[in-house]
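User: Please predict the structure of the protein below. I'd like the answer in structure-token form so I can feed it into my own downstream comparison script.

Assistant: Understood. Taking the following sequence of 108 residues as input:
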Amino acid sequence: MYSLLKPGGKMICSDFHPFTKIQDSLGLEQPVLSYFSTEVFEGEMAHARFYEEEIRRQMPKCRYRKYTVSEIINSILGNGFCLKRFDEHPSWENKNLPGEFTAVAVKL
């Protein structure tokens, strides 16, 4: 993303919260791992479960590695961005658990 932006350009990254590593708080039917796991696993695209079964079966599998909050923040900072905001959002299934995050950063 850094190479795509001009100096002063804004990056907005919204993704699933790393908490989903230890609990399937979004109901995505993905494996539950140690929070600090660096394992790469194969699974369906995150939104595949919203499609009809026939279409779902035709979708290719993806390879995933779920990162920790510190890995996400440190990769933003370590690649020349200035982190402006990092917000956590509740899970769709349980509003008491984190489900997604949004990071806003500016290219220096």
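That's the full token string. The first helix runs from residue 53 to 58.
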